[in-house]
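lol so apparently i was supposed to do this last week
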Amino acid sequence: MSSTVLPGFTPWPAADAQRYRELGLWTGETFGDMLAARAAATPEAIAVVDTANSWSYAELDRRSRSLATGLARLGIGRQDRVLVQLPNRAEFVEVIFALFRLGALPVFCLPAHRQAELVPIATASAAKAVITCGKHQLFDYAALADSIRQQVASLEHLVVVGDGDADLPAGAHDIAEFRDEPGELPVLNAGDVAFLQLSGGSTGIPKLIPRTHDDYLFSVRRSAEICELGSDSVYLATLPVAHNFPMSSPGILGALWAGGTVAMTPDPTPATAFPLIEKFGVTITGLVPPLARLWVERAEAGNTPDLSSLRVVLVGGARCPEELAERVGPALGVTLQQVFGMAEGLVCYTRLDDPTDVVIATQGRPMSEYDRVKVVDDQGVEVPPGTDGNLLTQGPYTIRGYYDNAEANARSFTADGWYSTGDIVSLRPDGNLEVRGRAGDWVNRGGEKVSAEELEGHLLAHPGVRDAVIVGTPDPVLGQRICAFVQPVDADAKLTLMTVRAFVRERGVAAWKMPDSVVVVENFPETGVGKISRKELRQVLAEGAQRN
Ligand code: OOB
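anyway here it is w/ OOB bound
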């Protein structure tokens, strides 16, 4: 077994790594080992189902080996970065295990990403290939990937999970070409980086999160234990499966670790997901708050498909309002589990046997006793329990640095290895966390994180915009909405919600980042040192809302 440290990866200090191994937290098992072990133990058990496929563990194991062998023939190998942009379908699992087995690193893109996100991600990761699909929900992903390939020199290959009928761009490959007879695959080191996850939002150079087999599988195992997954569990991937939450909290990897079944829904709304819960006998899933509200409202209206197999619903990604938390259990006939996590590592859960008030009012506690958390004031001094402060964390599955991004690392990691989460929390005396909001300038729109700075950059490109500030405004459904304050260059600049949105869309920005409202202002309020005061802008909105 040879190990080559990926350039740009910040490993854990050797003493910590040794301790995590001695404690048995890092076991030396790779993702490929895990799948092989399950395939040997229960070859006939169903590993993955979607509306078109049903694969046993033996079949998933064979498929991913076969695809790995084929992709190796194309020239994809150890440490090569490969953008994966796929909707929730069975092939997602086949593709990522094929890449894991090659030691190639999937870079987990979301189906909602467009040019403005994918070009910087491909550039920052110096990706060699893209694996995507053809048309999905009327959008041509292969054409998008082809245009990215033309803009990013490192991208040599485009591989499409086709449905047989797609017109592939010139030079693109259909994945069916690579389903070779399984051959020899490399022996990997579990301490090596297995994939690059994206941070909740990104500005300029995207922040790529390197996770190793060892650290990630620890979090997967612990999550599966806490969520009580077993071989009879059926996890429905409702949220976009490339995101850390449905991937591993406990997610599809938790279900596979437990020898259970992964079910995929291409669409998260009750109209599609509820019939699939009945069809696949789904026992557990994870939702962001706005989606949980949609599910609860639909269930409360009655006359749904049979949801009685569902036992646990996790809600997280953004703060779940208490009023909603109270309705989840009764409406869906489940135990609610709140989850507060981040792709950088730390994941907190309420436990299935927690008292109701903890489940309703808190975002839970770290999954592992080896997670370290501290809450500090703006001077870095720890605050007493029950006081709001900045959350810092480190532990066996929290990264020590972003991939190849010294500037972001200087901002987000302390010299002694704590990750500064950017979240304002209160640590209750009982050990559970209450999340208050973000310290940084982010809007959390129903779990989708939008960087104010990034969106401001797009608005500033508009010839009629002199300056722009993005502020989150409270919203009962989404948690926050995106309000764009814009200062026009002159009275002739026609800045309306429609023209601003059309402009941003034209720049190839993901739909979830579109402003929900536009407020035209003559001047911005300023702080003492001449910076624009977001605080005062929020105040303006709050006062406006009161007047209306
Ligand atoms: C999850 O991961 P990311 O990386 O998309 O976003 C992380 C950020 C956190 O720092 C926090 O600001 C926010 O999302 N967040 C929550 C929350 N869960 C996440 N804020 C309030 N309440 C919650 N329950 O979003 C993520 C990763 C793994 C599991 C679950 C969510």
